[in-house]
Specification:
heterodimer, A: mainly beta, Glucose Oxidase, domain 1, SH3 type barrels, eleven-stranded mixed β-sheet, 5 helices, 44% strand, B: alpha/beta, eight-stranded mixed β-sheet, five-stranded mixed β-sheet, 24% strand
């Protein structure tokens, strides 16, 4: 059976594609080294449109009115610029109601495209541009440690990582967020109070990497001005030990926290990336696995939250679970030494 | 002899669901079509595979190993038609429900006429409405254009104007749609379904053909002010949605080619099947189908040829659960749980399950939560469904009317640990009234059979006749007035072997009269105190009932069902009811 994979790797090579939300300009070039916050492309988004009924303003039938136009499709106009005029005893004019570009003309009307904001696409990961898709995006190749999460609030930052937990299941309180942490990326366990996120925003922190949150904190996380990544999910769940070890052994290093929104369809996931010095490029992380004995797996559902273990044996056919349901399942030896039966649907391969 | 028996024998039906892809094999055995076996695999439309055909291939490979017959050749191609050596299959059909809900813009004229009809149409399939544009829209045309560009809908459904009526209003709206579509990047231009005034059909096709990614002209959903006709547009919408999916999942084009040029949406195909079954069973009542899936709950009700189909993405049992508390409360879910489980655990379940839609309840607590959520979601969906039926078809107190039979599918129901659990989820969630047979579509065959009926009208009948549905129970739901414990119905069951069982059922109780599978029994029902078993106050009945997993279940708990407010009392009652139906 195909196994979902979550990357928690101490050293690997990752390849990430970054795409503009609309056609725009790609600034980066193939072979160029980029930092995670470097702008690699930009585009104008959120443009407004103004429909100008020039036939009505010129008091002419649509076809005839078009002959009085002084602008063409694609032409830029400034605010107040005369776009068309009739002559004669009672001449009429049509002026541009705003600065913009004529994007459509027809039926006695024209459409001005105005405004919009510049969207800057950053690399999101420190690496080397390995491919460029004209007007659309780039592909970046990078080596280092990677820890993928299950939830991200869509923001990105780099900063020095500081640990605020000693055990994977520690609960973070607002009083632990003090001024010494300003500008850092904090790693911590569980958060059950929105005040923690608010305190972090007041400092502000550069980012937070959390094991889990209770759902009542979700709204504060979504609105936080800095990136927040959740490694293990919702409810009182400890951080899985693989992520805990990897993060805590890299404290005080500069990391990239790309808390992008988890998109199952396209495969983009929130992740922490730690650049590491290498002498030889390590193998690319595998994105697809099938369940097999010997794999390190994480239990991802309610029972035994975030537990990590080794897949000992795939049970043939369907197994009866403690719930009474029947499902394909595997024997897992947990880190505690306990051996448990877990349905395959509740497992992820770590690697 | 029907054409289908001349040119076709074996059939491979593939259903691509959000979580699971199933491949079912049907063949002729002793002159009749039979369901032979099922293979399944995870659906592979998401990353990293992003190729829906891989899941289909794995499901077929799984099926091959079950039936012991190769269907795929060494190069990985499906062999159609079957070869003299028995390799391959004669034909194939495909149904689809995988993929995120499609971003849809609704366009009409009057809010309570064409806009309402086009919304009802949208609710028959897997769509997410992002905006509505109608005559009462207060926005300026350029603001409407900006809204469309910002939403970037994948699909636009347009209705408006009665046939032969005025055209200028709808022309103005069409101008806005055309302009917005033109301003979108070519790769993001929406598909358009037009189901309005037919006088404008040619103009719509001409004006939007080069701007929209696809244009489909359908019959007017409101040919006149007092007539709503959704059926032709439902079919066209299903086919257009599949085309939108083909842009997202290019491999579907190959599957369509193998499937005689047609892929149907699962909900639509299921609707076709229950419409067919409504005529086939001819019970004098409608047929109801319920499919509880990870991406949506679908409910279809067919009264002869009139099909009412609703897809509820907000009540899906997977990813949509993170948004469920926008539609209900934790208390409403908690009231269905008989175990001592803290509300926080239920809340966490909703969010964690949204991250792992395919996860299986492994513990008793997880299962209790999942089944409570399912009850609540079924109840919410059934209430909305009931409110959308024409007034003459609605049941009392906002409930669904009486149906015969009620067909249930979806692993959360059919895969439950015991028949009693399956029964209680359906009884509590749907609250059937009158007399109804509950049947389980354990292999999710209904949508496949609905698709098969496109080309082979014999196969679905014979497969249903051969026992493809598993009968769960015959439910009698007497409704009467009186305090808890008041006798409401006398029932006597006479089995084929001569054994008899007579009971007096009291308000608030559940009673089981077992009738084994394969047997039939005569059931005499005598309501007390003018109680109603769906035939009118005080009217009794003698009827033959088929054997089933549980037999006859008399549910005298009342309609609508009221649970005690006190927690311990409620839990005790829930446990008692479950015990009464075998645990």
């Amino acid at each position: 059976m195909i196994a979902p994979v979550t990357h928690i790797l101490a050293l690997t090579t990752v390849v990430r594609t970054r795409l503009l939300p609309a056609p725009g300009r790609i600034i980066a070039k193939v072979g160029q080294k980029v930092a995670s916050t470097d702008v690699v492309g930009d585009a104008i988004v959120g443009r407004k449109h103004i429909i100008v009924d020039f036939a009505q303003q010129l008091d002419q039938p649509p076809k005839k009115a078009a002959t009085f136009l002084k602008v063409k499709k694609g032409q830029k106009v400034s605010h107040g610029e005369v776009m068309g005029a009739t002559s004669g005893l009672f001449p009429r004019e049509v002026e541009a109601p705003a600065e913009g570009r004529v994007v459509a003309i027809g039926g006695g009307k024209l459409v001005l495209e105005t405004g919009g904001v510049s969207y800057e696409m950053v690399a999101g990961i420190p690496g080397v541009i390995s491919d460029v898709m004209a007007d659309r995006g780039v592909v970046i190749r990078a080596t280092g440690a990677v820890i993928q999460g299950v939830y991200g609030n869509g923001r990105l930052e780099t900063g020095v990582m500081v640990s605020l937990f000693e055990k994977p299941d520690d609960v973070l309180s607002a009083s632990s967020i003090d001024v010494n942490l300003r500008g850092s990326i904090v790693i911590a366990g569980h958060v059950d109070n929105p005040a923690v996120i608010k305190s972090a925003a007041e400092l502000p922190l550069r980012g937070m990497i959390l094991a889990s949150i209770t759902p009542n904190v979700l709204s504060a996380v979504a609105q936080a001005p800095f990136p927040v990544l959740i490694t293990d999910g919702f409810g009182r769940r400890p951080m899985n030990t693989a992520a805990f070890k990897l993060l805590t052994t890299n404290v005080k290093r500069e990391v990239t926290l790309n808390a992008e929104i988890y998109d199952r369809q396209n495969g983009t996931r929130p992740e922490v990336f730690i650049t590491l010095p290498i002498s030889q490029e390590p193998a690319e992380a595998r994105s697809m696995e099938t369940f097999a004995p010997g794999q390190t797996v994480r239990v991802c559902y309610l029972a035994r939250p975030s537990a990590i273990g080794t897949l000992v044996q795939l049970r043939p056919g369907l197994s009866v679970l403690p719930s009474g349901l029947k499902a394909p399942a595997a024997e897992i030896r947990l880190e505690t030494g306990e051996q448990v039966l877990v349905p395959l649907t509740n497992l992820e391969v770590l690697g | 002899m029907p054409a289908s028996l001349i040119d076709g024998n074996s059939l491979l039906a593939v259903d691509i669901g959000t979580v699971t892809t199933r491949a079912a094999y049907f063949d002729v055995v002793e002159g009749h079509y039979r369901f032979i076996a099922m293979g399944q695999a995870p659906t592979t439309c998401n990353a990293p595979m992003k190729n829906v055909a891989l899941g289909v291939q794995m499901a077929i490979q799984n099926l091959q190993s079950v039936i012991g017959k190769p269907l795929i050749d060494n190069e990985g191609h499906l062999t159609i038609p079957s070869q003299p050596d028995g390799v391959g299959v004669d034909s194939m059909v495909t149904t689809l429900s995988a993929g995120p809900a499609i971003k849809t813009l609704l366009v009409g004229l009057l809010a309570d006429v064409s806009l309402k009809s086009v919304e009802t149409l949208a609710q028959t399939t897997y769509l997410r409405i992002v905006d509505r544009i109608g005559l009462n829209d207060q926005r300026r045309p350029d603001q409407q254009v900006d809204a469309i560009v910002r939403h970037s809908p994948e699909l636009v459904l347009i209705a408006g104007g009665v046939d032969g009526g005025a055209t200028s209003s709808i022309q103005k709206v069409l101008e806005i749609i055309g302009l917005a579509a033109y301003l979108l990047p070519e790769a993001k231009r929406p598909a358009v379904l037009y189901a309005g005034n037919q006088e404008l059909a040619g103009e719509v096709e001409q004006s939007l053909n080069n701007i929209a990614s696809q244009v489909k002209i359908s019959s007017n959903v409101r040919p006149s002010l007092d007539v709503e006709n959704l059926a032709p547009a439902q079919r066209d919408l299903s086919s257009l949605v599949v085309k939108v999916r083909e842009q997202q999942m290019p491999e579907l084009a190959d599957l369509r080619q193998l499937s005689n040029g047609v892929i149907l949406l699962s909900a639509y195909a299921q609707g076709r099947m229950i419409r067919f079954l409504s005529s086939y069973f001819d019970s004098g009542k409608g047929v109801l189908s319920v499919d509880a899936g990870a991406s949506a709950i679908s409910i279809g009700a067919s009264f002869k040829s009139n099909l009412y189909l609703n897809v509820f993405p907000q009540f899906g049992l997977g990813e949509p659960l993170a948004g469920l508390l926008r539609h209900t409360t934790l208390d409403e879910i908690m009231r269905w749980i008989a175990l001592e489980i803290p509300p926080e655990m239920v809340r966490d379940y909703l969010y964690q399950k949204s991250l792992y839609p395919a996860a299986t309840p492994a513990t008793v607590e997880e299962l209790a939560i999942e089944q409570a959520v399912l009850r609540q979601n079924l109840q919410l969906a059934a209430r909305i469904m009931a409110s959308r039926l024409p007034p003459t078809l609605r049941g009392r107190d906002g409930l669904l009317p009486s149906f015969e039979p009620i067909l249930a599918s979806g692993a959360a129901i059919t895969g439950a640990a015991t028949p009693g659990q399956k029964l209680m989820m359906l009884l509590d969630g749907l609250q059937p009234t009158g007399i109804a047979t509950l049947a389980l579509d354990q292999n999710n065959l209904l949508s496949m059979l609905g698709a098969a009926s496109e080309t082979n009208s014999i196969l679905p009948i014979q497969v249903i006749d051969s026992g493809a549905l598993a009968y769960l129970a015959t439910v009698i739901a007497p409704v009467g007035k009186g305090p808890y414990g008041t006798p409401i119905l006398r029932a006597k069951l006479v089995r084929e072997d001569g054994t008899q069982q007579a009971v007096e059922v009291k308000i608030g109780n559940l009673q089981i009269l077992p009738v084994e599978n394969g047997q039939t029994a005569r059931l005499e029902l005598r309501p007390l105190r003018r109680a109603d078993i769906g035939l009118g106050p005080g009217k009794g009945a003698d009827l033959d009932v088929p054997g089933s997993m549980l037999g006859v279940v008399i549910d005298a708990r009342g309609r609508p069902l009221h649970l005690p407010a006190e927690t311990d009392q409620r839990r005790e009652l829930l446990n008692k009811w479950l015990t009464m139906v075998g645990g």
